[in-house]
Amino acid sequence: MKFLVTGSAGLIGNQIVHDLEKSEQTVYSCYNKMKPVFGIPTKLDLINLENIGKIIKQIHPDVVIHSAALTDVEKCDTDIELANILNVKATEVIASEAEKIDSHLMYISTDYVFDGKKGLYAETDLTNPLNNYGKTKLFGEKIIQNKNSNWSIIRTSTPFGLHSFKKTFPTWVYENLKNKKKINILEDQFTSPTYVPNLSKMIFEIISRNLEGFFHLSGSTKISRFEFAKMIATKFNLDSTLLNPVRIDTMDWKAIRPIDSSLDVSKVNSLLKIKPISIKQSLDEYSLQLTNSFSL
Ligand SMILES: NC(=O)c1ccc[n+]([C@@H]2O[C@H](COP(=O)([O-])OP(=O)(O)OC[C@H]3O[C@@H](n4cnc5c(N)ncnc54)[C@H](OP(=O)(O)O)[C@@H]3O)[C@@H](O)[C@H]2O)c1
Fold first, then answer.
1. Ligand 1 pocket: which of 71, 163, 228 to mutate (most atoms <8 Å of CB)?
2. What's the rounded Cα separation, in Å, for the pair 90 and 80?
């Protein structure tokens, strides 16, 4: 099959393209600033809306995975116009072009479409984003849902893993504790941390089986940032007393964050052969990945 993936050098896109290529698919890896290591690198600045149609027509993919977005939550609140172009307008054009050639469109969305008052959100729960990032991602979801050809929407939460230039939460905690630096960690924000290689495998199964609709693809454990950081300290034998618990209302953020945006993964747990993994298993695999990267 022929794939086109946007945001191919990003945290999630990079893993997806890597795994698709490994399974011998043809993958056009779209990027703007950072050239992807895997796939067939294809320059596509999503701000240039006219270009999107040209590239999709030229490549004529069977599947489009739209992973690119303005993911900086603060920037989405301070640069409303840019967030609107990248997360909404570009998604609109991608959806319309994918529909014209009848390709499956998978949209990578977020737990931030929820307000965080309830936690453990199922696919059928009501959305109510608190910040502009969540609002623009939800607009994106609505656009995809109105498409007449195949679509799937993946919502994930706190993705993490090793990446050549993006530092995810466990790596940040690990590096600081290793350097004996004290760090502030939120004790009252809960998510479902997602090990990106596990996410990518589930995504591949959804595409291979041509499944449609909404899927909550995250890790299977709801956990606070602080508890997560403590587990990282224990896993790597680092000093957990350097972790300083702080509360979300002390943060100097413009964009409001949901308190508990954890996801209920029951649907995919019963549907997929590849299951969402626990935080313990995720950290075991991440630690192996980290150790192997040191020995390279
Ligand atoms: N990170 C999270 O906490 C999180 C949580 C839940 C869901 N998600 C969703 O998952 C998806 C992937 O997230 P991620 O963590 O992999 O994001 P990421 O690492 O920040 O990557 C974002 C990607 O978007 C691309 N992009 C940004 N502006 C672009 C433009 N003008 N033209 C073309 N591409 C552009 C970037 O490409 P260049 O580098 O080439 O500019 C980059 O590859 C996003 O849709 C996000 O909303 C993320």
1. 71
2. 14
Q: How far apart are CA 216 and CA 276, in angstroms?
A: 10
Question: Domain locations in the chain?
Answer: 2-167+194-220+261-277
| CATH number at 2-167+194-220+261-277 | 3.40.50.720
Q: Which of 100, 17, 5, 13 is nearest to 53 (CA)?
A: 100
DSSP state of 86: I
* 66 CA: nearest ligand 1 atom: 45
pLDDT digits (tens, 9 = 90+) for 168-181: 999 999 999 999 99
| pTM (global) more than 0.70 | yes
Structure confidence by residue, pLDDT tens digits, 233-277: 999 999 999 999 999 999 989 999 999 999 999 999 999 999 999
